[in-house]
Amino acid sequence: MAPAFSSRSRNRRRTRRLAADMGLLVCAAAFVLPLAWVVLSALDPRADLRVKAPDGLTLDNFDAIWTSEITFTPLLNSLILCGGATGLTVVCAALAAYPLSRFRSRLNRPFLLTILFATSLPITAIMVPVYALFVRVDLIDTLQGTILFFTASQLPFAIWLMKNFMDGVPKELEEAAWTDGASPMQSLVRIVLPLMGPGVSVVTVFCFVMMWGNFFVPFMLLLTPDQMPASVSINEFFGNRGMVAYGQLAAFSVVYSTPVILLYVLIARRLGGGFALGGAVKG
Amino acid sequence: MNSRAVPPPNLRRSFVRALPVSPALVVLLLFLAGPIVYCVWIAFTDLRLTGQAESSFVGLENFRTAFGDEEFLNAVWLTLVFTVLSSLIGQNTLGLALAALMRRASKPVRTLTGGIVITAWVLPEVVAGFLLYAFFRREGTLNAILDWLHLPSQNWLFTLPILAVSFANVWRGTAFSMLVYSAALAEIPQEITEAAEVDGAGGWRRMWHITLPMIRRSIGTNLMLNTLQTLSVFGLIWVMTRGGPGDKSQTLPLFMYEQAFQNSLIGYGTAVALLLLLVGSLFSLVYIRLLRTEV
């Protein structure tokens, strides 16, 4: 290969990379504007609606929202709701995934197809009937009712994901335990789940993040202000006031969003960048 | 292991083995299948929120009302516009473009852009709504930029609310397509694109004749999932416009909510919900067909 050719192709590659970089940076700039607003305004003593350099840095906005009414109670409620529902989802999903992954049965395929079908149903659509049903069975405005519905709405996806991760654990490892007389439950808890630790944590974090950000479910099923999670209280608190303190709104948004972003970073690292909900999308 | 001699221990064994599925099954039947069945039932009644002892069966009345109701048809139209603009065109194309560019870009730029786009995706729905509300408001960032460029600015949330919420949905949802397509593009063998390059196929032709056909399954799956996700967007639009002004950004989920709670017509609202659920189920079935070989 002549040196002239390879240097030309190297040049071309460099030009191309530059063009791709420029294209991505333009997109990144467009995407970052709304994010920049929330970060800058949270620190700005005179925040308004546009992105601008703050008039001096201050933590007053955070101080102002640091009350139980605005911040602590809603975040605690979110934690109870999402923590409870995530725990329940992960336990039910791990139990359900085990026989689906380990034992052959004629029912597996229809069950998995139904689960996959339910995964992609628009849950928003059934919130009105769920409300009507919850009024009838007296679960409306209760945390346990909301937790159970959250669990049900997240379970199909969680089972599907969990089963795919579980399939990755070789069966041979368990067979030794079975010959030693371990029950399937023992081998699930002692062998399979520890071996699929990253998988379990992905399912857990994913469920938690989905519920933490969900607005419509608690908006419909909870009525008492004291029970509202942050997703609803933020809207009630800032949405229904004539005069909005934008700096405080931004500060609250930052406080409320930080946990899910950190959790996401945690699992994305664990799986290496290519985490495209692999289990779900690629089957 | 003497029980082997007895003919049907299989049934018992299968039952014991299937037992761990039961907690999930109970929750799913009671809180997911139950409401869906209940949805089908009350869609055919005149259930109301207030001042009514019991509801009665009204047959197809709710559906007949819906298809003669201009507000409903408006919501169907807006849902269509919202889905096509934000999901089919916006999230899908932009996601593919970002994924394709990322394969060529340098690592720091790739990481930075990916990080920003994914952050927009991970943010809670209501926060995303507030951010985009601030962006599109009359005194917000978009108009500030337009002023700076000496372009005409306007009150986006008032004049073109459906466009504003569609953009918001693109901002929020593109990361998913980007991740799906990044994974799909990574699986295309390098030799194929290189061979085409040597044969003199330019970037666009390679994209059209080689890359797109090779990732068509991912395109199908991604379109299905984007559409389903977009059909059920509520919080984002609620925070930004409440469906207004008037009903200029009132998609079906918001219409359903308004009928059921502001107008107290639970039966009617549920009939709309059922239609939404049916459309979703159709998409869901197509999606499963696309994936079926892999279960």
From TrEMBL, chain A:
UniProt subcellular location: Cell membrane
Membrane topology according to the record: Multi-pass membrane protein
The keyword Transmembrane helix is annotated on this UniProt entry: yes
Pfam families linked: BPD_transp_1
GO biological process: transmembrane transport
Entry keyword set: Cell membrane, Membrane, Transmembrane, Transmembrane helix, Transport
Main location: membrane
GO CC annotation, single: plasma membrane
Cross-referenced PROSITE patterns: ABC_TM1
TM ranges: 75-98, 110-131, 143-162, 200-223, 243-267
Top-level taxon of the source organism: Bacteria
Keyword DNA damage included in the entry's annotation: no
Family stated for the protein in its record: Belongs to the binding-protein-dependent transport system permease family.
The protein's name: Integral membrane transport protein
